[in-house]
Amino acid sequence: MDTLNLPPFDYKIKKSGANSLIFDELRKKYVVLTPEEWVRQHFLHYLIQALHYPKGLISVERGTTYNRLQKRTDLCVYDHHGKPHLLVECKAAHIPITQEVVKQVSVYNQTLQAKYVVITNGLQHFCWHVDFSAQQYHPLQEVPAFKP
Prior knowledge:
Elements: E1 13-16, E2 19-24, E3 29-32, H1 35-50, E4 58-66, E5 69-78, E6 84-90, H2 99-112, E7 116-120, E8 125-131, E9 136-140
Parallel strand pairs: 6-7
Antiparallel strand pairs: 1-2, 2-3, 4-5, 5-6, 7-8, 8-9
Pfam families: HSDR_N_2
Organism: Pontibacter silvestris
Protein name: Type I restriction enzyme HsdR N-terminal domain-containing protein
């Protein structure tokens, strides 16, 4: 797997037939280790260890509906009231962050209405604060840390 621009963490990998699996601490199970999953697991641990987001407020690959289409969010952090706070879209390291990717996440967030949106491929990370009343995305220099 690629070396990413995220802090390392202690991960567990095992083989199952032709697949490598990585242990997902939140889902409490091994999942297929794809390049995107590698980025998702790194970013998940970054949120928990470096930015101090509580595990109980984070969901992984949660389903949502947009225009009657079923979509899955990579990571979503909720506030203490159960409302989406931070939406994270993960791409494999070899996938560039393009305007199309930004549009994809913006579309998801029209339904979720998270206050912050993050897009990462493990090498580049982009974060925006969303102002729904003005319908504007304001770029941030870094992902905000958890505030209790």
